Amino acid sequence: QVQLVESGGGLVQAGGSLRLSCAASRSIFSNNAMGWHRQAQGKQRELVAYITRYGVTRYADSEQGRFTISRDNAKNTVYLQMNSLKPEDTAVYYCSADLSLARIVSGTPSYWGQGTQVTVSS
After folding, report:
1. Is 55 helix (H, G, I), strand (E, B) or coil?
2. Euclidean distance between the first and final Cα of the chain, in Å?
3. Neighbours of 120 (CB within 10 A)
4. What's CA 113's distance to the chain center, in Å?
5. What phi and psi, each to the nearest 5 degrees, are found at residue 26?
6. Model confidence pLDDT, tens digit, residues 33-77
7. Cβ(119)–Cβ(11) under 8 Å?
């Protein structure tokens, strides 16, 4: 049973923008904090940003000011708006959800999406 579905990845030139979406089942979305993570080839998965059920957000230092995480409670969807993209942003981006914010921060959430590829060309 698929409960988190990402979309919006693709190929973009450096300096461009993409918006990722993660549609969640209502039972997951309504009570959980949500996160976006990414994993570049040959590297560990890392947290990009998270948003609590109350809308509090936090970003990794490298994404601060370029990326914006938001959630639409009516659509059970969390978004990641990515601007000024760089080749080093190339990775598979994953959506996550958990009641515990600590588990999202540690990279051990209860729920993962299947991932969406983002490729930034130079």
Report:
1. coil
2. 38
3. 20
4. 10
5. -60, -35
6. 999 999 999 999 999 999 999 999 999 887 778 999 999 989 999
7. yes
